[in-house]
Design brief:
The complex is a heterodimer of chains A (549) and B (318).
Chain A lengths: L1 H9 L1 H38 L1 E4 L1 E5 L3 H7 L2 H27 L6 H32 L1 H5 L6 H12 L2 H27 L6 H37 L6 H27 L3 H22 L2 H4 L5 H33 L5 H13 L2 H11 L7 H8 L14 H4 L11 H27 L3 H9 L4 H30 L2 H6 L11 H12 L2 H25 L8
Antiparallel strand pairs in A: 1-2
Chain B lengths: L1 H10 L11 H24 L4 H5 L11 H9 L4 E6 L6 E7 L1 H29 L5 H10 L5 H23 L9 H5 L6 H12 L3 H9 L4 H12 L1 H17 L2 H6 L8 H11 L5 H21 L1 H11 L4
Helix pairs in contact in B: 2-15, 4-15, 5-9, 5-12, 12-15, 12-16, 14-15
Classes of the chains: A mainly alpha (549), B mainly alpha (318).
Chain lengths: 549, 318
């Protein structure tokens, strides 16, 4: 027995098996942890967001949490998401077709069938899992107070597997898994060397995207019907459908306008240029008019959340451009032939690496309200009257005597912006410096021979060559502002109330103070979607201007 | 990018002697230095002042009040060392250490060691082994890096509560996760960032070494232990330093999973100390901040290269 095993592992096939086995063994701890704390949470958070959930699962509530956060806009967004999933499915079908050989062979169909079965069984696994989860999650509450022993815990766990719904879903899942194992085995036997992972993966993608899209569409339509029925009962008119149509058409028109506008800019012929630009503008106006339904769709949204998003946007606009330009300036100066470069670089980096809590506390004291606080002392040198800084909830525009629409953020938020800029400048400068070092020196020499001035060299060589770095840093900075927490936690005071709460701080408050897990999850998802959309948008718009050498 | 920092010095050589035409550049750069470290210098200076001196924004203290530090250590519960001696013989029996500094140190140690133990084999498998589904699994791992922390917060919390219950019924109260070290460290063991960093390094190790090792009869585990690891001191140092700042800084997650001072890390301790004591003893707040900053600054000056290169290579702070 031992001998034959040794012989097997010495053979070529045996070595491959052994290598696979060792690799999975190496990977097992990381894969378990990432599955548990990285991949599973995303699906789980979405699942939680569809429930009333206060510490422990309460009951399924559909899109109610999203509706509470975004008002009717939630339905519109979910409708779009469903369409997006369906579109992905059809796109994948097209890719799949292109991937297959012209003369369709049995192996192709077999692979597609295999992918479909596998994808379907994955969906069934997810279904089973999420039927099981709420039952398993309450175990800690059930065993609380009792003499907790492993036996009791395991008994409860066993019971939850035998719950009627779970059992049904579990049986379906097992059947599907068995079926897919069978299909895979047959495939491996029949076509041992012709299988292509890509085809199987794409067919898996097709079925998951289409079924997921159908599920979401059904969910959304059912929710809209329920909301309309409830509104009819109470005698109100709820214009969800008209809002859905208007906003969707508006967004489509805006996107179309953007595309046409881009074409127009690139057009060489004058008449074509004019026609395209005019068409783009008129489409944009139409889209904008249709989008005017948007505020109406948002009337029942959570105002604190909307304010949180607005604050986040102001925060990003107030910090990212400033910190990037100062960072670039410092990096450019550091790049000149000067002495003590290493010293400067080291010093500029200090604010970034020191714990944010500690430096935030220093800023809290510097920008304190008393007349004798450091910032006010500084102002008094210039003869400006003292400010209340972190205790000031009034917008800066008002303090400067500007009209209302230029009000801007609260002064307390400006302090937080100053802090963030201060922290990240050194980081930006160091990364810019590395980017500057990547630009080949010949380019500068050639430009100098052509007689270009310093500014023109900067504008036409340094900046384009540096654009990937600018792109990267702005992306990181924007995502950073969406996730900023520590500095706001420390620098906010009771006096300013919610005037400095960005969306993520508001979500955290909601979680910690009122334990509304379901609602907090749904808001976190909205934030996630915003970050994702922003990243994609930036990739498209800015990515096109990036010069990758 | 590491390469670029190296050839930086070859492109632009500093001239010998002070170049007066560069005065403008130096002025701006020194202004930058003052802005960058000014708050730190004043923080240190203020930590030695009396309360009224801080409130009046003096630049320097009249007398150095070292006792601010001992008061801050005690008041903010940063460090408390208790020596228990035998009442009769006077022999030291036990030492009990507590406080946020100690907690953070323990948490950092556990999470760095755990992270290395989990990430090194995984990175090795991705870099140097062939197995079914390698690229798919790697892509899945990488995709988790893009998910914002706030989305993960709630599921992490629920998972930790549940796993904690399970391990509590296995190991008794010591096995709790919530308000205990596992919730503060285990979710961060499998850091995709660390795996990625190590993998990039492992890929650069020449294949000849592996061939030679295999001829000598070594398998993957042996090769990893006796060839790869000794060569990988640099990335491991980077992971240790970044892991150190990461756990020293963590605020949001520990705020949620700690309810008393048994395992509460320093960032939470400091935040609570300051927000609970408004307007409070500003000089003590400064002293407490200095105490928090010092370990990081020492580490920064010792391992500067790891910091700057680790961050410049990847653009991410731990």
């Amino acid at each position: 027995m031992g001998n034959s095993a040794r012989e097997f592992f010495a053979s070529r096939r045996g070595r491959v098996v052994k290598e696979n086995f060792t690799a999975y063994l190496f990977l097992a701890p990381a894969a378990t942890l990432i599955g548990l704390f990285g991949l599973f949470p995303v699906a789980f958070a979405f699942f939680v967001s569809l429930h009333r959930w206060r510490r422990f699962p309460d009951h399924y509530s559909g899109l109610a949490n999203y509706e509470k956060a975004l008002g009717n806009l939630a339905f519109i967004l979910f409708f779009w998401l469903a369409l997006l999933l369906l579109a992905t499915g059809f796109l994948l079908i097209r890719r799949l077709r292109a991937n297959l050989s012209d003369s369709r062979r049995v192996v192709d169909y077999a692979q597609i069938a295999c992918g479909l079965v596998l994808g379907y069984s994955i969906l069934l696994v997810v279904d089973w899992f999420f039927k099981l989860i709420p039952i398993v999650m309450v175990i800690p509450r059930q065993v609380r107070g009792q003499n907790t022993s492993l036996e009791l815990f395991m008994e409860k766990l066993g019971e939850s597997f035998l719950h009627a719904d779970v059992l049904l879903a579990g049986n379906q899942m097992l059947a599907a898994l068995l079926c897919s194992a069978l299909v895979v085995a047959v495939l491996l036997r029949r076509f041992p060397h012709q299988l292509r992972g890509q085809v199987i993966a794409q067919s898996m993608g097709v079925i998951t995207a289409i079924l997921g899209g159908i599920f979401l569409l059904q969910l959304t339509l059912a929710e809209i019907d329920a909301a309309l029925a409830a509104a009819r009962e109470s005698g109100e008119a709820l214009p969800i459908w008209s809002q859905l149509v208007f906003v969707t058409c508006g967004a489509c028109l805006l996107a179309l306008a953007w595309v046409i506008f881009q074409r127009g800019i690139r057009a060489t012929e004058n008449r074509r240029f004019l026609v395209l630009i005019l068409a783009g503008i008129s489409l944009a106006v139409g889209g904008y008019l249709l989008m005017a339904e948007m505020p109406a769709a948002l009337t029942s949204a959570d105002e604190d959340l909307l304010q949180g998003f607005w604050i986040t946007i102001m925060y990003a606009l107030g910090t990212v451009p400033v910190q990037l330009s100062i960072g670039l300036l410092l990096a450019y100066l550091l790049f000149q032939p000067i002495r003590y470069r290493a010293f400067f670089r080291m010093v500029y980096f200090i604010p970034y690496i020191t714990p944010f809590v500690a430096t935030s506390i220093v800023f809290r004291i510097i920008f304190n309200a008393p007349e004798t606080a450091p910032a006010n002392r500084m102002l008094s040198i210039f003869g400006i009257e003292p400010q209340r800084w972190i205790l000031e909830r009034n917008p800066v525009g008002e303090l400067l005597g500007l009209p209302d629409f230029l009000a801007g953020p609260a002064l307390a938020l400006v302090v937080i912006m100053i802090y963030s800029t201060w922290t990240y400048i050194g980081y930006d400068a160091v990364i810019f410096l590395a980017g500057l070092g990547n630009i080949p020196g010949e380019l500068y020499e050639a430009a100098r021979i052509d007689g270009a001035s310093g500014w023109r060299i900067f504008r036409h060589i340094t900046l384009p060559m540096l654009s990937p770095t600018v792109f990267f840093l702005s992306l990181v900075a924007i995502i950073g502002t969406f996730q900023a927490f520590t500095q706001i936690w420390i620098l906010r005071t009771g006096a300013v109330g919610s005037k400095v709460n960005t969306a993520s701080v508001y979500i955290f408050d909601e979680l910690q103070n009122s334990n509304r897990y379901g609602y907090a999850s749904s808001m976190a998802f909205v934030l996630f979607a915003m970050i994702l959309a922003l990243t994609l948008f930036q990739n498209r718009v800015m990515g096109r201007r990036v010069f990758y050498g | 990018m590491a390469e670029s920092t190296r050839n930086l010095s070859s492109i632009a050589k500093p001239p010998s002697g002070f170049d007066w035409s560069k005065l403008g550049i130096y002025t701006v750069l020194f202004a930058g230095v003052i802005v960058a470290v000014g708050p730190f210098l004043w923080m240190i200076s203020a930590s030695f002042m009396t309360l009224s001196e801080v409130s009046l924004t003096r630049l320097l203290p009249e007398n150095l009040l070292w006792e601010n530090y001992s008061t801050a250590l005690r008041r903010a519960n940063f460090l408390d060392i208790e020596l228990v001696t035998d009442p009769v013989t006077g022999i030291l029996q036990s030492i009990s250490v507590s406080g946020y500094l100690w907690n953070s140190l323990r948490i950092t140690l556990i999470s760095v060691v755990g992270s290395l133990a989990v990430c090194i084999p995984a990175a090795y498998a991705f870099a140097r082994m062939n197995f079914v589904g390698r690229n798919v699994i790697f892509a899945l791992f990488l995709s988790t890096m893009m998910i914002p922390g706030i989305v993960m917060l709630i599921p992490h919390l629920l998972t930790v509560i549940w796993l904690g219950r399970l391990s509590e019924s296995l190991f008794g109260p010591a096995g709790a996760w919530f308000n205990n070290w596992p919730s503060l460290t285990v979710p961060f063991f499998a850091s995709v960032f660390n795996i990625f960093l190590l993998r990039q390094f492992f890929l650069q190790i020449p294949n000849d070494l592996w061939d030679a090792a295999r001829i000598d009869g070594a398998g993957h585990p042996r090769f990893l232990r006796s060839v790869v690891l000794p060569l990988s001191k640099a990335p491991i140092m980077t992971i240790i330093t970044l892991g150190f700042i990461g756990s020293w800084n963590a605020l949001m997650w520990p705020l949620l999973v700690t309810i008393n001072d048994d395992w509460r890390p320093i960032a939470v301790g400091l935040a609570n100390f300051v927000t609970a004591d408004t307007p409070g003893d500003l000089n003590l707040q400064m002293a407490a901040s200095v105490i928090t900053v010092i370990p990081i600054l020492i580490l920064y000056f010792l391992a500067q290269k790891q910091f700057t290169e680790g961050i410049a290579q990847t653009g991410i702070r731990g």
